[in-house]
Design a protein that fits this description.
The complex is a heterodimer of chains A (313) and B (549). Chain A is α/β, with parallel strands linked by helices. Chain A contains ten helices and ten strands. The longest helix of chain A has 20 residues. Chain B is α+β, with helices and mostly antiparallel strands. Classes of the chains: A alpha/beta (313), B alpha+beta (549). Bound molecules: guanosine-5'-diphosphate and magnesium ion. Guanosine-5'-diphosphate binds next to α2 of chain B.
Chain lengths: 313, 549
């Protein structure tokens, strides 16, 4: 971290206490290395979002001057924004990472969508099922995920090493105690661990780090004039080929995405923030949490916990 | 943004990037108000989003009195927790003020969940122990759980303990009640040897002295809880001691680079420093400290770095770099032994029993650890030492452990990182215990004793008989028949044993090259100390192995 005044080399090498981003970075790198040392076949779940972008940079740092010693796995629901896919392909190529894309093709062919299935069922098929299949196909015993504990209440209970049984499921009441930075990587056949190197990062930390490190992110995060439609209570981005429902019309608004999910279920927000400092400033005045614009999380109280138990990350 | 606004904002960013991180944990009995207190801290520092607050307000559950919003719901995240109104598992929370960034481990007070308190405490800089003022009046003394948790805080080496005397609103904000609690708490804390203790009267429900000073307790002139958290000096002990750099991973991207990746566990490392590798005791010089952001001239706890050394010495995962010239503990050497005492917090339904062997993870090393003895169990209410032959869940004892390989450690009081280990049940893989090392039991002969390597290929029974014969003669010997030890790590294992004065015996078939590798890299072996035993009788092998019969 050499780009900013507070993080210049003087501070970075002082034996005084590290500042909070340096401390978080050191912890995350140690977690990534520990998992690579201990698991037979790790993989990184790469969602193309801002958290994944930070996690990917941390992986580059952890194994420098070597290459990232594991593949990236993207679970493509077929509902990702075209900009996301373009960014994914260009960026992973640029940094020389191995990318695996997994899709639940039978469900996609059968027309799985959130409108007729409901968000929970649609996510179950296109994300959770697809993720579990993708992990099983690759024979991965550990999967890095970019989830943060500050995102949602049930995530606040997650361990850094989150144990999953042979069906990929999470049992929140029976988690392994996790002390100091000593992680228990012992597994039986078929079991796996989700490793969360960003556990202790907050949304603000992520943005500060993206800024300090000049990490590229999908342009959808920055506000610009975009075609949108109002669908339900949500401002939805419109793009070519999208079917309009009766009564809907396309109009232009200056909007950005606060988090990137599937387009039918991730709303845009009106914003003037077209640079990272502006996004950070906006975030500090926000009174709403980042997952609020995702339909899935607030279907019912505790819905994230239910999804996580089933194997969602 | 205008030019000035941009400049202001960049100043803000700089200030924010330079913030320190403080980790704290909460403890206390169930219903003392821990979750409410954290909810209050989050709420009053404006760290709660509107939609989260709205969800709490419309929740079916509300246990707060006087029509207050139930702020405990902000942290109790699991379904069962909301329904039963209790905290089951550690929940981590984050907030920041203009002065610091905070990580909170909110831990449950139920006795069966004490292991989670230890979990939260293991990384904390500060422990907040809640004391229910009303319950204190009712009982006339501190509740056993408050004592237990204060004891665990001291056991886990948390530098600062603050007692938040809560529910002051229920005792008419009376100074006399606060004073008796403070007196009893301070007395108990000093009995535990806690060095930094602070006591603050609060009401989590009403918000008194949490973030804003209380108008109802004018008699109190100390800091609010938040002021305390923002200003308490952070410990720097770990950056001061002698260097400990446990190797996590060897990076070999190409034939020209061989780097040792890891996190500095203690002390400082400079480019150009002379360092010693354990267990080989080879000395060399730090050529470079490599990071993605460029080489560093020095790195300290807890930085993650990659070290390149001048000489091609053997060094692998689980091994350690320490200062060169370390001869004794006072000159920077860690303890190197297989037999040590440690305080163990037991975390599993199935009890710890003497004689059982568990897996242990210490820094980056995984070994087997056998429980040799329970020296005493601690009655955490009276702090008395009592006899015990097993440890049930949530019990704490001083235990003698013997590992199959030597560990390189410091006492936990010296270093939380190199003085701690976890115990894992090898059958279920559950994490069953947490151990804080007190010190070595006795030295195993140390350097220069008659350690040898005996290889009796494919003769497992003979290997066992040899081990028994040596032990019967008071020599230390270890059978390397463990699947944890791969042939790749054999050299390192034998070297470590040799350093601790322990003879290694194996019935594995080793190639001539592998054997040569071990002998070459283990300077300490003199001629005659490596025995390859095909066609020899037991006694002959013992004699040849340099072990006097
Ligand atoms: N009157 C009063 N009640 C409180 C206070 N703090 C917490 N409570 C109540 O005490 C009960 C237990 O609180 P909770 O935060 O769940 O306790 P925990 O089990 O320690 O997390 C709840 O009904 C709270 O509303 C306080 O300062 N004053
Ligand atoms: Mg609670």
């Amino acid at each position: 971290m050499t780009q900013t005044v507070a993080l210049d080399s003087d501070t970075a090498i002082s034996p005084a206490r590290l500042n909070h981003l340096q401390a978080l970075e050191a912890e995350s790198i140690a977690i990534l290395r520990e998992a690579v040392a201990e698991f037979a076949r790790p993989v990184m779940l790469y969602s193309i979002g801002k958290d994944s972008s930070v996690m990917l940079r941390l992986a580059q740092k952890a194994f420098y001057p070597g290459k990232i010693p594991f593949p990236l796995l993207h679970i493509d629901t077929s509902y990702k924004f075209p900009e996301m896919i373009a960014f994914r392909d260009a960026y992973t190529k640029e940094i020389g990472a191995e990318l695996i894309v997994h899709r639940n093709e039978p469900a996609i062919a059968a027309g799985a969508n959130p409108y007729t299935l409901g968000t929970q069922n649609c996510c179950g098929l296109l994300k959770t099922r697809s993720l579990l299949d993708g992990l099983a196909e690759g024979g991965f015993d550990a999967a890095f995920g970019g989830a943060r504990r500050d995102e949602e209440k049930s995530r606040a209970k997650e361990r850094v090493y989150s144990f999953r049984d042979s069906a990929g499921q999470w049992d929140p009441k029976n988690q392994r105690p996790e002390l100091w930075s000593l992680y228990n990587s012992r597994l039986k056949k078929g079991e796996s661990i989700r490793v969360f190197p960003l556990s202790n990062w907050t949304e603000l930390d992520i943005w500060l780090y993206l800024y300090a490190e000049k990490i590229p992110i999908v342009p959808l995060y920055f506000a610009t004039e975009r075609p949108v439609i109002v669908r339900g209570s949500q401002l939805t981005l419109f793009f070519d080929g999208m079917k309009l429902l009766p009564g809907e019309e396309v109009r232009m608004e200056k909007v950005r995405m606060r988090s990137l999910g599937c387009h039918p279920c991730t709303g845009a927000m009106r914003s003037e923030a077209d640079t990272l400092p502006k996004i950070i400033e906006e975030l500090l005045t926000f009174r709403r949490s980042e997952r609020e614009n995702r339909a899935i999380d607030h279907d019912e109280e505790g819905s994230m916990e239910v999804k996580k138990r089933e194997g969602y990350f | 943004m205008s030019a000035t606004a941009t400049r202001d904002f960049e100043e803000f960013l700089e200030a924010h990037l330079g913030q320190e991180l403080l980790r704290f944990t909460t403890a206390g009995s169930v219903d003392d108000g821990k979750s409410t207190l954290i909810g209050r801290l989050l709420h009053d520092t404006k760290s709660v989003y509107e939609d989260q607050l709205a969800a709490v307000k419309k929740s079916r559950v509300n246990r707060a009195a006087n029509g207050h919003v139930d702020l405990s719901l902000l942290t109790d995240g699991l379904k069962a927790e909301r329904e039963q109104g209790i905290t089951i598992d550690v929940a981590y929370r984050y907030f920041s003020t203009s002065r610091r960034k905070f990580i909170i481990a909110d831990t449950p007070g139920h006795e069966q969940y004490t292991r989670n308190m230890a979990t939260g405490a293991s990384t904390a800089d500060v422990a907040i122990v809640l004391i229910d003022a009303k319950a204190y009046l009712r009982e006339g003394r501190l509740l056993p759980q408050s004592r237990r948790h204060t004891y665990i805080a001291s056991l886990l080496g948390i530098p600062h303990v603050v007692a938040a005397v809560n529910k002051m609103d229920l005792v008419d904000y009376a100074e006399s009640t606060f004073s008796s609690i403070r007196a009893e708490f301070v007395a108990f804390a000093s009995q535990l040897g806690l060095k930094s203790v602070t006591v603050i009267p609060v009401s989590a429900l009403e918000g008194d002295n949490v973030v804003t000073p209380s108008a109802k307790m004018a008699w109190y002139d100390g800091p609010t809880l938040l002021e305390f958290l923002e200003t308490v000096p952070l410990a720097t002990a770990d950056t001061r001691g002698p260097l400990r750099f446990p190797v996590q991973l060897v990076l070999r991207p190409d034939a020209n680079f061989r780097g040792f990746a890891g996190q500095v566990a203690r002390g400082v490392l400079h480019q150009g420093d002379r360092v010693m590798a354990l267990p080989s005791r080879r000395e060399t010089t730090v050529r470079r400290i490599v990071t993605w952001d460029g080489d560093l001239s020095e790195a300290s706890y807890p930085q993650s770095i990659t070290v390149e050394l001048d000489d091609e010495i053997d060094l692998s995962r689980g091994e350690m770099l320490i200062p060169a010239g370390s001869e004794t503990q006072s000159s920077g050497l860690p303890e190197i032994t297989r037999h040590f005492r440690s305080m163990v917090v037991w975390m599993h339904e199935e009890p710890l029993v003497v004689g059982r062997t568990y897996l242990a993870k210490h820094t980056t090393r995984s070994v087997r650890a056998t429980v040799k003895a329970i020296r005493y169990r601690v009655d955490v209410s009276s702090l008395d030492h009592v006899q015990a032959d097993h440890l049930a869940m949530n019990e704490i004892a001083e235990v003698e452990l013997e590992t199959n390989l030597p560990l390189f450690f410091d006492a936990y009081a010296e270093s939380r990182t190199t003085g701690s280990l976890i115990l894992i049940d090898g059958l279920t893989n559950a994490t069953v215990g947490a151990a804080m090392i007190v010190g070595a039991v006795d030295t195993e002969g140390g350097q220069g004793s008659q350690a040898a390597l005996v290889v009796v290929a494919r003769r497992a029974e003979l290997a066992e008989r040899l081990r028994d014969a040596l032990e019967a003669r008071g020599q230390r010997a270890v059978l390397i028949d463990d699947s944890l030890i791969t042939n790749d790590s054999l050299t390192s294992v034998v070297r470590a044993l040799n350093l601790a004065g322990v003879t290694a015996i194996t019935a594995r078939e080793l190639s001539t090259e592998a054997l040569a590798d071990i002998v070459r890299s283990t300077q300490a072996f003199a001629e005659g100390e490596v025995v390859v035993g095909d066609g020899f009788e037991d006694d002959e092998i013992l004699r040849l192995s340099g072990v006097r019969i």
